[in-house]
Design a protein that fits this description.
D-Maltodextrin-Binding Protein, domain 2, 5-stranded mixed β-sheet, globular, alpha/beta, 11 strands, 6-stranded mixed β-sheet, 343 residues
């Protein structure tokens, strides 16, 4: 007889505790029920970032209150600056736009790279699917196969936008350890750049390991390419014999510079929404992202295209991006010098 009132009281307390969450959830669900989410991709179709974004768009909506649909757009240009600038300045500040851009967005903003008109710390970061390890590869006919070769012999690399990692990383290596990579700019994304390498227009290209695996796994299997370096803090487990860029430093000063640049590989395939988005919608997007990362259907789709999963939560990603804003002035000035192509 006495148990029932106590149980009823506990149930009432539980309901009261859950009430604020339910009240917050209701307007979020109503908002997302009424309109689709725009997925903005700062790259051309076909590359690894495009693949990641499109697979995410297929699954993320199921985990967002209101289950919104997605409209996917590619907005390539200036190493994804066009997309980042649009999200920062022109997109609705309501949580209805999610974008992916270059992992170097934060450092480009810090260094004042031309065309970077956004504030990465003010963007709301939703989450990361995987780190993004780039590397330099050369076609099997090129005499430049190793970093030692590249320090003595020039090799042409197909480049994309000035703000893209395909251009930034080789330039940094040229300016720090004296490699002689010569960038041939103007290719629209990694697929076009890899085709140029295969046709002999250039000797090589710098792109992500994931993009290479997805587009041309046979090049790896048949040894059609040589990989000289991977742009990361540590060696990727699938490239144990390829040196990480930080290993090439010849002194502590070079190491600190390379570590600052290679931190972008940890940002990786990261997604963000606009500044000023309502906090409850940002939180809903972050929670939905985390649920998607554990979704068996999402994971299966990644496995089908041979790309990896190593997620980071939105709050942790936000902290990582903000660390770049706190780089010491002296280190920032040194970075500014090595980011400039001196060819």
């Amino acid at each position: 007889m006495m148990f029932r009132p106590a149980a009823a009281g506990a149930a009432a307390l539980s309901a009261l505790a859950l009430a604020p969450r339910a009240m917050a959830q209701a307007p979020v669900e109503a908002f997302y029920k009424s309109k689709p989410i725009e997925m903005l991709i700062g790259y051309p179709p076909g590359g690894s970032n495009d693949v990641y974004a499109r697979i995410l768009a297929q699954h993320l909506g199921r985990h967002i209150p209101g289950a919104p649909g997605f409209i996917v757009h590619n907005l390539p240009g200036a190493g994804s600056f066009l997309a980042a600038n649009q999200v920062f300045s022109a997109s609705p500040k309501d949580g209805s736009v999610i974008a992916i851009g270059a992992p170097t967005l934060a450092i480009d903003e810090k260094l004042g790279t031309p065309g970077a008109r956004y504030k990465t710390a003010q963007l709301n970061w939703i989450g990361r699917i995987s780190p993004l390890v780039n590397m330099v590869m050369t076609w099997h006919t090129s005499p430049v196969k190793t970093i030692a070769d590249a320090q003595t012999t020039q090799a042409t690399l197909a480049g994309t936008g000035a703000g893209s990692t395909a251009s930034i990383y080789p330039t940094v290596l040229n300016n720090i350890i004296g490699t002689k990579y010569k960038l041939v700019m103007g290719y629209r994304g990694s697929n076009e750049a890899m085709l140029a390498m295969e046709r002999g227009e250039t000797e090589g290209h710098s792109t992500s390991w994931e993009a290479l695996k997805a587009a041309h796994p046979e090049w790896i299997r048949d040894k059609k390419i040589s990989i000289a370096v991977q742009f990361s803090l540590t060696r990727h487990p699938e490239m144990p014999d390829v040196p990480a860029a930080v290993e090439l430093a010849r002194n502590p000063g070079e190491k600190s510079l390379l570590e600052a640049v290679m931190a972008a590989s940890a940002v990786g395939t990261a997604f963000f929404t606009t500044p000023g988005a309502p906090p409850e919608r940002v939180e809903a997007l972050r929670q939905a992202f985390d649920k998607t990362m554990a979704d068996p259907a999402f994971r299966a789709d990644l496995e089908k295209v041979r790309i990896s999963l190593d997620p980071m939560k939105g709050a942790d990603l936000q902290k990582l991006v903000m660390q770049v804003a706190d780089l010491p002035a002296e280190l920032t000035e040194k970075l500014r010098l090595i980011y400039t192509d001196k060819q």
